[in-house]
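Now for a sample.
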Amino acid sequence: MNTNDLQHAFKILKDLLSDSTCLAQDAKAQDGVRQLQKLETESWKITEAEMSRLLKNAQETLNEVHKVASVSITEMKTFLEQFYKRQSEEEEAICSREQFYKRHSEQEEVIYSREQFYKRHSEEEEVIYSRDVEDFTRHLISHYNNTFGHIPISPLLPNRDVPFDALFTTPSIFRTVRNQDGTTSETKVTQYADLLACNFINRQVFLQGEAGMGKTTVAAKLVLDWCNAQNGPPSFHGENSAFADIATLKQFKCVFFIKLGDHSGTSDVTEIIQKQIIDSIYTSTGRNDAYKLLNAILERDKCLLIQDGLDEWTSDDSRLVQPFMVASHSRCAVLTTSRSWKLTDERIKESQIDSLLVLKGVNDSNRMSKKMLHLLMPKDDIDSKHNEFLRDLDTFANNIDQMLVSPLLLSLIVCSWVEGNRLTNSRCKIYSILIDGLFKKVSLKRVYFVNQTFTCLKNTHYIQQHIKYLKVLSKIAFLMFGVKEEITDRELLKHLTSKQKLFALNVGILTERKCVTPTYTPSMFKFIHKSVREFLCAYYIACNPSAISSISNKIADGIDAVNILADVFIFLCGLKISSANRISQLLDNIINSHNMINITQSQFDNIQSKITQGFAEAKSNIQNEENIQFTFN
């Protein structure tokens, strides 16, 4: 080995022994480096034995290096394999993530496209829905204008109708509220906002009133005002701007007016609307689509349902007191009209009545009577004719104002007056006409009396077929005479059947109210007006003259009782003069009794005036003057 080779060998050995990774900290390796440096500078003499030891140590060191290198290489391979594996997994994960994001992005694009499609489709559907509702509303308004645009002048003249506003007179409506102490308070209602008070959905408003007070007319007016509100900007109208806020009605997309009496036995409100309104608007080919649209309107939009005549509706399901509306139609406000007696039904809970309104007739009976005269008579000098009518009215009966607020009774009186039946001519005839008009409510069939004893009943149309009801009601009137204004349900049913009671309530001769007590709520009944009760009482006495003997026992002492008997006497003069003669004798006995010694001159004059009225009534009913034998000193 030459010098250069030796120097190269030294360098390689030193580099190996100085490896920073494995031998830099090895003491033997560093000692070998120092020995090699000495040997390289020839400052160290090595023996053969030392050389052998050094070579042996070098071999061992190299073996150690080989082992370490093998382990390191193995670890490096393992590391690289794991690294490449992780890198591959990460790349796959990145690829999967990219694929996921790509798919997600594609899905988002699909969803976005679908949303755009649905949005456009929904917008198109909304346009179609709005157009269909607009078309439906137009047909509905036309239907209501045709149905309610005209109104009969009177039940006596059903074929003679006039434009609605020509006769309509502002109603007198009050909201009644039960106080915590059990009493009730009333507030007058003059605007639709107060009448409906629909500040929340699914509101239940009840409008109650006696027969002939104009409940259906008020509901019809509301419907017509809704139609007007849809057609253009509202304008104030009517008397003293009462119920002029028709803009309030614009909040309702649709108003559905249904007459419950025409669909007794049908319990689903939607079905009644379909039968009564949809079938009247659309032909058979368009009804299925209209039914679907109806349900959509009831579910989506704020509507008003008017149920007219709850007292005329019945159901085979005893649990139902009124037709039901499905829960999905909860956006509807409901206005239900009914006679007062129906709301005494225990199935109607107070919690189901959000607002209770009482209709007390027309606000101005003079205004209505003048309107009627204007429609029934020549237009010349209506003011003087109206004044003449009012003068006749003043002499007709006491406390008649309570009866004139009823549009039904007022129209019957006006029509009778126009026909020449002056109110002072025959009070019996007027009341016969009134009762005949009430009986018409349950039957339109005309049946006349043959050989009728009572003149006032001869030309009536609807009493003869219900004469049994008239007789039983007259008996009730006689039993109540001089005793009480009202009678309990238990007392009433002692003298008539449930069917007869229902008849009296339906025609409106009897009214019913609840009398609230801490333990139970009995029903109390009274006649629609005390003058009607007096006429029926007189009719009973005329049919049963022997009843006169029990009258003195029924009358309590006092001038009020005498006045009541004197009013009955006037009717008897027109019905049966022989019975009237006996009553005049009874009146004379009472007036001259010790208990009436303090009667004033004005009170006596009033009784004497009624005796005179009785004479006029007898003459009006063609009583033989020779048979008029009054006794009154």
